[in-house]
Amino acid sequence: MTIDDWSEFDPATRAVRAGHVRTQEWENSEPIFATSSFCFSSAGEAAESFAGNRSGNVYSRFTNPTVRAFERRLAALEGGSCCVATGSGMAAILSTCLALLSSGDHIISSTGVFGATTSLFNNYLSKLGIDTTWVSPTDPRRWREALRPETKILYLETPTNPLTEIADIRAIADIAHAHGALLVVDNCFCTPALQRPFEFGADIVIHSATKYLDGQGRCIGGAVVGDEETVGEKVFGFLRTAGPCMSPFNAWVFLKGLETLELRMQAHCAHAFELAQWLASHSAVARVHYPGLEDHPQHELARRQQSAFGGIVSFEVVGGQPAAWHVIDHTRLLSITANLGDAKTTVTHPASTTHGRLAPEQRAAAGIDDGLIRVSAGLESVRDIRADLARGLDSL
Question: Most Cβ neighbours (<10 Å): which of 110, 127, 131, 304?
Answer without folding.
Answer: 110
